[in-house]
Amino acid sequence: xxxxxxxARGVRKNFGVIEILKGIDLRVEKGSVTCLIGPxxxxxxxxxxxxNHLEKVDAGRLYVDEHLVGYAERNGKLYEMKERQTAxxxxxxxxxxxxxxxxxxxxxxxxxxxxxxxxLGRPRREVVVEAQALLDxxxxxxxxxxxxxxxxGGQQQRIAIARALAMKPKLMLFDEPTSALDPELVxxxxxxxxxxAEAGMTMVVVTHELGFARQVADQVVFMDGGVVVExxxxxxxxxxxQHERTKAFLSKVL
Amino acid sequence: MNSTSKExxxxxxxxxxxxxxxxxxxxxxxxxxxxxxxxxxxxALAIVLIxxxxxxxxxxxxxxxxxxxxxxxxxxAPQILAGAxxxxxxxxxxxxxxxxxxxxxxxxxxxxxxxxSTISRGYIWFFRGTPLLVQLIFWYNIAALYPVxxxxxxxxxPSMVLGSANVLISPLGAALLGLSLNEAAYMAEIxxxxxxxxxxxxxxxxxxxxxxxxxxxxxVILPQAMRVVLPPTGNQVIxxxxxxxxxxxxxxxxxLYSAQIIYANNYQTIPLLIVASLWYLLMTTVLSFFxxxxxxxxxxxxxxxxxxxRKPKTRTA
Lengths: 254, 317
Known about the structure:
The complex is a heterodimer. Chain A is α/β, with parallel strands linked by helices.
């Protein structure tokens, strides 16, 4: 029970008066794949962004690799971290976005080496070699000198995965990584994610790809209205849902 | 109005042309002969304009009262060259300070701290809202308000006297102060627009990679803002170059003032204004050239930029 990569206890989040997360409890074991599914507006993306502290948690505790996210706990009080400390703590997790968010003014290779060189301060030559290996791994070894806009959506998303991996994160967060893609490009991105899961990476994936969830996930979490409605292994949540809301959602999606 | 209506009738005459094209299509099958659309009105207008331009050029060349001989003799006069040098110095210093201070003001304006953003807003309101000429004369006469400049604690605390305002703020100093502070207000708005044009997802991506503060701004946001900031900044540099001629009211011998001193003596007003204008034109031409190069540099990776040839791709193909 001590090997959780992510542990959420009663995590709450408001945007103004609207409560987006109403107390999330969740465990993500090291080396496991968790898929967050649910209707839009259910808080899946917000929760994912909380794990990386891109959104501040308003109440409850969120631990990544046994460290409290965004706060330091001293003498029974929580102290908000400085921006620089928060930035450091984000290095545990790599993040992949729905809209790719590659840096358009840099080439593919520059995108990948940017953070290792300028955040970690590692020697450029060494990082370039690793970046090339990552590009080969996502099947784009010959596109290092292209600009993101010259690539297809699927290729851009694979580059975004490589860029996150270049920081050697312990955890990968995926925010609807295939939702902005043309249908024929979805497969190539899911293939890269599958191979990543097989290599033992801990992953939290917000997705609408139930086939992917069934095949790859160790745990499927169904969220609705800011709470976790149901969670468990995919054959249970997807194959034999217990809750009415889960059944209703699955019947609409399938 | 007349020319457009003629063009409309010309368009109405088109159908017969395309009708004759149709059978050819069916016959040849693969390539269709294309008859380009003719623009008779446009052509006539162009010819008229060329004639007007030529006659104007001819007149300028043969009209003795332009005194081209005087223009040539003063074009490289030492006072004129010195004046041009000072104009460049004023432009470079004022733009540099203006851009640096403008960037700071833009970041303050976008800050979450309401005090910082209000201060920035107030600064921009004041310096954009009063005429540059007034600001220049104000700084020139600052000694009337503050005869002595000192360094010390506010509200009557101890202070260290630096010297007389008249000595510390020379006419050149007043000119640089006026131009820089005014420019900063305009640059702040331009840079704010540029920063605002960068997609919010870029902040997310940079933060997720562990960037924050200055690094996030300098490495990710500002280089992308540059693309939007550069064209209006080019405008600002050029208008600054010419705007420096306002400092002639402070008796600073910039390019225009140097020309004025000469024609005050020899009464060759028009030839010397031509000399000054030719130098201004040369300088703005050079500036436009560099603006173009910079725009291309910062447009890389965006659609508007010319595509680079990708070596690896051509090799595999």
